[in-house]
Amino acid sequence: MILAVIALIASLMGPGAAAAQDFSAFLREMRAEAASVGVTTATFDRETEGLTPDLSLPNLDLPGRRGPSNAGQSEFTLTPAQYLAPKALAAQAAKGRQYLARHRQALAAIERRYGVPGSVVLAIWGRETAFGAAKVPYDAVRVLATQAFVGRRKAEFRQEFLLALKMLQDGAVSRAGLRSSWAGAIGLTQMLPSQYYKYGVDFDGSGRVDIWTSETDALASIANHLAGEGWVRGLDWALEVKPAAGFTCGHADPEEAMAVSRWLARGFTVIGGKVPSATDRAAPASLFMPAGAYGPAFLITRNYYVLKAYNFSDLYVLYVGHLADLIDGGAAFATPWQAAKQSSTAGIAAIQQELARQGHYAETVDGRAGMKTRLAIGRYQEARGLSVDCWPGDAVLKALQAAR
């Protein structure tokens, strides 16, 4: 009876009051789990006193928020032409070369230890926080608690929340310094707390892993992260190619890989100024056409997927990989990106649903135009005798709906 009355009062007071009540229960649960990662009750109580959830964050599983939420994620909403704007990349590369000169000795030592080129490490730093210039706006403890409470990946964030408290307890950073993105990424490296504990490196010998103010520690931690995910020393992340005759984006299957030398033997040509090394030629690679028929084609290697482990977006990997090449003095892509209008998140989800209904798509319906979505579009277009462009635009959605 008492519980029913409390529930009735909360419902009358509105969703905010109900959320506050549930959040208090959530904190009690987490308090009981805190010891599992070495967080004392004293630390937990001190850092969560007065804590409330931030229900304005993106990607929360809340009533009224339907379907996939890509708010704040340009990697999943912009087209390649928009995300990989040459002018912005050139400006970032110029800054990257300045930091390459500034940290040349440290980056050489980092590459010797981890096998990751300095240009790649700098490119990630440049993309994540604009070489430290970007503002990291949120209180990390509040963000991680909110994501663990009502996030779409709440199970994963429970440990991240507790490890953030452990960072405070360990003296790794102050509460004021523990700022994050809306998704809980922290420091110059934009790592999650679990990644900090797994990959963080005290490379400057200060006795503390400092990814907030030590650029050397931050750069080494990025390299250690990539090495830990399987970075192959001396292997290029991708080679821009001109496809052989008869190959379209409908053949760009990420699961069909063969040695780069075999792709070349089939008539593919490396363009853009790169010369494949012996390591590159022997490495397995798959064909990747991120804009379908409206942009460059690439042979992507294992190191492409290592970069993707840092951020799952293909556009992010293309940005970081290309920025690294530019920092090293490489050229712009030989094939330009063409402007093409992409469907909205809801429209792409509808395309995926129709493709699945017609037997061309068996992946998650998430409203994101990834490799498998473009491949499915291309195969559908080939099967229907349509012009093959693999592009998730309104035209393909209309064609799919008309074929019901």
Structural key phrases:
5-stranded antiparallel beta sheet; mainly alpha; disordered N terminus; 404 residues; 6% strand; 19 helices
Provide a brief overview of the structure.
The protein is mainly alpha-helical and 404 residues long. The protein is built from 19 helices and seven strands. The strands form two sheets. It has a five-stranded antiparallel β-sheet. Strands 1-2 form a two-stranded antiparallel sheet.
Instruction: Output mean pLDDT.
Output: 92
What does the overall shape look like? globular
Distance between the termini: 53 Å
Summarize the amount of helix as a percent range: 40-55%
Count of helix runs: 19
Task: Going across the biggest sheet, name each strand in turn.
Answer: 4-6-7-3-5
Radius of gyration, taken over Cα atoms and rounded to an integer in Å: 23 Å
The count of β-strands is: 7
Largest sheet: 5 strands, antiparallel
The fraction of residues in strands falls at 5-15%
| Order of secondary-structure elements | HHHHHHHHEHHEHHEEHEHEEHHHHH
Derived from helix and strand composition plus strand pairing, the structural class reads mainly alpha
Uncertain residue segments: 1-16
